[in-house]
Amino acid sequence: MDVEQQPTAGHVVSGRLLTLPNALSVLRLIGLPVFLWAIVAERDILALVILLLSGLTDYLDGKIARRFHMESRLGQFLDPIADRLYIVTTLVGLAWRDIIPVWLVVVLLLRDVVMAGMLLYLRHRGQVGMPVHFVGKAATFNLLYAFPFLLLADRDDWVGRLAEPIGWGFAWWGVALYWFAVVLYAVQARLVLERSPRVVLS
């Protein structure tokens, strides 16, 4: 879970619903149940195609939104939700097939629980949003790159042997950056709260 992005000066975030970036985010969400079924049913080619298309549309919706000024509040909500759901779905599917250990799932999900608690505390103090940090985005990208390689690593051939170290390399970087982002957000939140008047939301 990444903290929500605050608009900067001169930065317009619209309330439009029907935009191309939003449509791409919705398509990613529609593909989730098919993706989960493909992993559990060991239809790895289909799962890889959906995962790659998800990564491509994730890149395109942000690029299009910024390039053509189509950023919207709905898009800011849907995009991180889609990222989180794909990460959780992939973790559950890979753990179900014993491709990754359960402790890795726990470590990553625990990070999201910690971030959710931090966000709730910030809202309680009247701080409704903070800028998205590059480290958090980098962590998400590393994990999303790791999953296709880890899925390929389940193959009992040279492709699987080649994919395994690459997948785990991305996975370890993703875990490290994921938790490093929590530390950075905590430091950033403390600085923001120290500079802001105390406002408690009922």
Automatic annotation (TrEMBL):
Alphabetical UniProt keywords: Lipid biosynthesis, Lipid metabolism, Membrane, Phospholipid biosynthesis, Phospholipid metabolism, Transferase, Transmembrane, Transmembrane helix
Coiled coil: none
Protein's UniProt keywords contain Lipid metabolism: yes
Bilayer topology term: Multi-pass membrane protein
An annotated GO BP: glycerophospholipid biosynthetic process
Localization annotation: Membrane
Alphabetical list of Pfam families matching this protein: CDP-OH_P_transf (PF01066)
Alphabetized PROSITE patterns for the sequence: CDP_ALCOHOL_P_TRANSF
GO molecular function: CDP-diacylglycerol-glycerol-3-phosphate 3-phosphatidyltransferase activity
TM segment ranges: 102-122, 134-153, 165-187
GO CC terms in record: membrane
Signal peptide: none
Family named by the database record: Belongs to the CDP-alcohol phosphatidyltransferase class-I family.
Protein name: CDP-diacylglycerol-phosphatidylglycerol phosphatidyltransferase
Organism: Humibacillus xanthopallidus
Taxonomy of the source species: Bacteria, Bacillati, Actinomycetota, Actinomycetes, Micrococcales
